[in-house]
Amino acid sequence: MNPPAITIPPVPSQIYLHHTTLRPRPKLIAIGDSITEQGSAHANGWVTSLSIRYSRRLDVLNRGLNGYNTRWGKECLPLILGEILGPSASSAGDGSAHPSDVQSTFISQNHRDEASSCASDHCSDKDQQQQISTELPPYSQYTFLIAFGANDSCLPDGTCSRNHVPLHEYSSNLKDMIQMIQSWTLPLSPNSVSVALLTPPPCNTQVVSTSRHNENVTKLYAEECIQVGEDMNVPVVDLWNGMQIPIDKDGQGSVDDLTKDGDTWKHEYLSDGLHLTPLGNYKMFQLVVQMLERPIHSSQLECNNNMAGNSEYPSGLGLSVTQLPRHYPDHSMVDAENPRNIFRNTD
């Protein structure tokens, strides 16, 4: 079975044309191990699929590092944050403006008609600027996905023992990484950065038995990741349960399929017992999108009926592709005679 083609969901023409922004494009950063790194290694990768879905709405960056666990990821995280966010709040201290502080500018729905009128009437720059409304977006400028656990859960006496991290340290490392991200830009807008966790996916221990004799060991790390999400009030994608549900003809899974199809997912989703096939990447993409597009509720836990076990999950991040503005005005809204006008910021 081949994965379905990734497309951008249809948006009503009026929203498509007029819901645009001059604000710096938000960024979605995936941090994890080889399952994340390989998510951009081919056209069917789950990170690649996110780039396609959020084209012109989010810049999707992959910072997956094969073989890494939370211990090594935590040590590398300051370099990633420095690269993407700039100096930390504790080291900056120069009062310089941050990209996330740039005021949002959305093109109003009647702007195209007004722009045409403005061109014919030779209106001033001030009049042109008044036709652009300003408001702060309801989503974060930087969204971090933390996806570790597949290597942490290696057996301490197995062939990959150097990658093993004890369960209690795994939990502590995840919390430290969340706190580091949230505090990096603390003096700036508190909503400029958001974080979500991805549990380790299930593995086929019949194939990778030398490093993982019992797949329930990985399950313990997945459960701990969910607990960390609840403790830190950040959304969690339960890959452990979600990826054991096959994809039906409509590209969706059902909880009933979990018992009916048994171990079908091991052959459809896993290429070597651990890493993902194209179909496995598509399933992971589906589960991540479900979380990204759920509405934001600051402390409410939601039950995701698409997951097995009816576990409770923190809310999503409100990154609905049909509601995010496209970056820069649509070409049909650019005044051919005075193209500069529409790109003028209101600041």
TrEMBL record:
Transmembrane residues, as ranges?
none
Which Pfam families does the protein's record reference? Lipase_GDSL_2
For this protein, the record's InterPro entries field holds: Iah1-like, SGNH_hydro, SGNH_hydro_sf
Residue ranges of every copy of the SGNH hydrolase-type esterase domain listed in the record: 30-281
**Record protein name field:** SGNH hydrolase-type esterase domain-containing protein
The record lists the organism as Cyclotella cryptica
